[in-house]
């Protein structure tokens, strides 16, 4: 039940990101057309686009955490047995939970400080910027607690033990190497038995 709620919330956040991108395109492109074509412009375009970009970044980080799309290097973790993978996953989630708690605390303090300060053009309170960090840190904390609950209850699958993805270049390189091995009939070096030194040929 809880997993379904988290997944449904992530889908709504993806829709919010798409809507935010659309509004940013309209504001920026529309401002360029008005400026060069009609010697006019949208006054709040620059400020609104900047604020929306901040929100898009923070909300995108929440979705990426849920989808395990943050870049990382997990070569060492992959080589460990399941017990080592579980230990590393728990340690990583606890460290991330601490980081999100610090982000939440800092965002809360800055929200209170800038609550009555307004931007010069649009008049939007500057606290609007830090509320993005407040909400995103809370939602990331929920995702991390969900991951920890899976690990503690023993329901964690193999995908739950890896919290990141490798870069696209490395992934494509692995795929190209595997395809080449299949075409040439060469066995995978990872499954090839090792020959002890000093043995006969």
Structure description:
By secondary structure, the protein is mainly α. It has 6 helices and no strands. It has one domain (2-163). Helices cover 70% and strands 0% of the residues. Helix 1 (2-38) packs antiparallel against helix 2 (45-67), helix 2 runs parallel beside helix 5 and helix 4 (82-113) runs antiparallel to helix 5 (127-153). It is extended, with a radius of gyration of 24 Å.
What's the structural blueprint in terms of helices and strands?
Elements: H1 2-38, H2 45-67, H3 75-79, H4 82-113, H5 127-153, H6 168-184
The helix/strand series, from N terminus to C terminus, equals: HHHHHH
Percent range for helical residues? over 70%
From the alpha carbons, calculate the radius of gyration and give it in angstroms: 24 Å
Please state the structural category: mainly alpha
Distance between the termini: 60 Å
Query: Main β-sheet: number of strands, strand sense, barrel status?
Result: none
Low-confidence stretches: 188-197
Number of β-strand runs? 0
Instruction: Please state the overall shape, judged from the principal axes of the Cα atoms.
Output: extended
Mean pLDDT: 78
- Percent range for β-strand residues: under 5%
Task: Work out the helix count.
Answer: 6
Total number of domains: 1
């Amino acid at each position: 039940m809880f997993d379904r709620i988290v997944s449904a919330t992530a889908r709504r956040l993806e829709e919010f990101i798409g809507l935010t991108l659309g509004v940013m395109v309209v504001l920026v492109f529309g401002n360029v057309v008005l400026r060069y074509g009609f010697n006019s412009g949208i006054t709040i375009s620059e400020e609104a686009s900047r604020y929306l970009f901040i929100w898009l970044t923070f909300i995108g980080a929440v979705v990426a955490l849920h989808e395990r799309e943050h870049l990382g290097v997990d070569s060492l973790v992959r080589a460990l047995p399941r017990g080592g993978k579980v230990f590393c996953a728990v340690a990583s989630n606890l460290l991330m939970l601490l980081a999100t708690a610090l982000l939440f605390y800092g965002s809360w303090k800055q929200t209170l400080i800038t609550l009555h300060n307004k931007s010069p053009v649009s008049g939007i309170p500057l606290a609007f910027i830090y509320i993005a960090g407040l909400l995103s840190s809370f939602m990331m904390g929920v995702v991390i607690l969900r991951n920890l609950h899976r690990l503690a209850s023993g329901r964690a699958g193999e995908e739950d033990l890896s919290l990141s993805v490798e870069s696209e270049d490395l992934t494509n390189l692995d795929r190209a190497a595997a395809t080449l091995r299949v075409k040439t009939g060469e066995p995978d070096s990872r499954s090839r038995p090792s020959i002890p030194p000093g043995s006969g040929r």
